[in-house]
Design goal:
Elements (H helix, E strand, L loop, with lengths): L3 H13 L6 E3 L5 E2 L6 E4 L3 H8 L3 H10 L2 E4 L2 H12 L10 H9 L2 H13 L23 H12 L3 H8 L20 H16 L6 E5 L5 H10 L2 E6 L2 H13 L6 E5 L10 E7 L10 H11 E14 L12 H7 L8 H10 L3 E7 L1 H17 L1 H7 L2 H19 L3 E9 L19
Parallel strand pairs: 1-3, 5-6, 5-8, 6-7, 8-9
Antiparallel strand pairs: 1-2, 3-4, 9-11, 10-11
């Protein structure tokens, strides 16, 4: 059957109720769609079977990871054009693609077209998911055992792979840029500036005790100990991260000031700490455990101690109970990860007893950071594939590029929330002039 691309375009436009904004190139070399637009390449019939058995985002994600589909042209432009088909205009709510498909298939002409395309897909057997997909999980969310497995899926990919993507700073969170376009600053400069900003917000002083929750590869505790003379404890659930961080601490000659533990925040009982940093970790906590997380951190701080909670946020929904975790992110990137609106985060911290003193929104900074990470991955593509797998590298390229656009388009944000365990006297110990740490 000739002109598979034309038939695919027709079906897609019937289902979506709108013109397809990208071109399609099929395995039979046929092409269809607007000239000059980025091209969605359908490499084989297996891609159709993935979409038939999992219509919507998960089917597309599986086809992308497996290499059954690709993009010829600018990936950012293609994702930006397709985003309008995925997200409801002006909201953070994704459109329900499965429902749209089922509604379309109720129409006889669409059923006929779908049947015709199904015949192109070959045997009506669902392809196995790519090896990079997380296995189905059972049982309650965010138990200690389940959280360890989720963290391992994401972070125990290989330290060398992360070094390619993140660069020498080995900081896996939003950097802090001096100018709107990143300017001439390096990624390492911007990450150092972010770590130093957090240290200043926490008001760190020599010999204070700092707890870094979700310490990653140790960059925060290293900076705080080296530049501010604190005694730091870094905790992570990733064995690979801990081993790497301990090596860095030893090489820096700071083993007398820094301890790296494989430990959950619920297992820390050697309080009090003068300050706590939680940078890009709270996204793993989950709505069911967030009150516990806030209460545990409050209990670990001494009166007057400060918490800096650096966390990705989503836009609020009219019905918060309708929130669903993104299927691609859940299966391939952050299993069990959940995002909350910043208002929900600050309320949970206040409910635990904290006084929230400052909220700084820095979503544009994360878009710039992600674009640098994507550039690092693309520059070292073959090495990244050798260190992990082609599928894993494809997961990261899609995830980071799509995330950069989501930050740019205000579908998600990131905020630094400074909170204090204010004592009964009311003396919070903060500077009288707001944000004195910036000057």
């Amino acid at each position: 059957m000739a002109d598979a691309a034309g038939r695919l375009t027709k079906l897609a436009e019937e289902v979506l109720g709108a013109p397809l904004p990208v071109r399609i190139r099929a395995w039979d070399r046929s092409e269809s769609g607007p000239p000059g637009a980025p091209t969605l390449v359908i490499r084989n019939r297996r891609a159709l079977r993935r979409l038939v058995f999992k219509p919507g985002e998960l089917g597309l994600a599986r086809a992308w990871v497996a290499g059954d589909i690709d993009v010829d042209g600018d990936l950012y432009e293609a994702l930006d054009l397709l985003a309008g088909l995925i997200w409801e205009r002006g909201t953070a709510a994704p459109k329900p693609p499965r429902a749209a498909v089922l509604r379309a298939l109720a129409r006889p002409e669409i059923r006929a077209a779908a049947k015709e395309l199904l015949s192109l897909g070959g045997l009506p057997i669902p392809p196995a998911p790519p090896a990079e997909e997380a296995r189905p999980r059972r049982g309650p969310l965010h138990t200690l055992l389940r959280d360890r497995a989720a963290i391992s899926h994401h972070y125990d990919v290989g330290n060398d792979f992360y070094a390619l993507v993140l660069g020498p700073s080995m900081v896996y969170s939003c950097a802090y840029w001096a100018t709107g376009e990143g300017g001439e600053a390096t990624l390492e400069d911007a990450q150092r500036d972010k770590l130093d900003l957090i240290c200043r917000k926490l008001g760190l002083q020599e010999d204070q005790r700092l707890l870094d929750v979700g310490c990653g590869w140790g960059s925060m505790v290293l900076h705080a100990a080296r530049e501010y003379g604190v005694r730091a404890v870094g905790i992570t659930l990733s064995e690979e991260q801990a081993a790497y961080a301990r090596k860095r601490v030893a090489e820096a000659g700071l083993t007398d000031r820094i301890e790296i533990r494989v430990q959950d925040y619920r297992e820390v009982h050697d309080e009090p700490f003068d300050a706590i940093s939680s940078i890009g970790m709270a996204e793993h906590v989950g709505r069911a455990r967030y009150a516990e997380y806030a209460a545990d951190l409050y209990a670990l701080l001494k009166p007057g101690g400060r918490l800096l909670n650096h966390q990705i946020a989503r836009r609020p929904l009219a019905d918060e109970d309708a929130y669903q975790v993104d299927e691609f992110i859940d299966r391939y990137v952050f299993p069990d990860g959940e995002l909350a609106p910043v208002g929900g985060t600050t309320s949970a911290l206040e409910d635990a007893g904290f006084e929230v003193r400052d909220v700084e929104a820095i979503r544009e900074h994360y878009a710039l950071t992600l674009r640098r990470w994507v550039a690092n991955l693309e520059q070292h593509w073959q090495q990244a594939v050798r260190l992990t797998s082609r599928g894993r590298a494809r997961v990261w390229r899609l995830y980071m590029a799509a995330s950069a656009l989501s930050f740019e388009r205000n579908r998600i944000g990131v905020n630094q929330v400074l909170a204090v365990r204010t004592p009964q006297s009311g003396a919070a110990g903060l500077p009288l002039r707001a944000r004195a740490w910036q000057g």
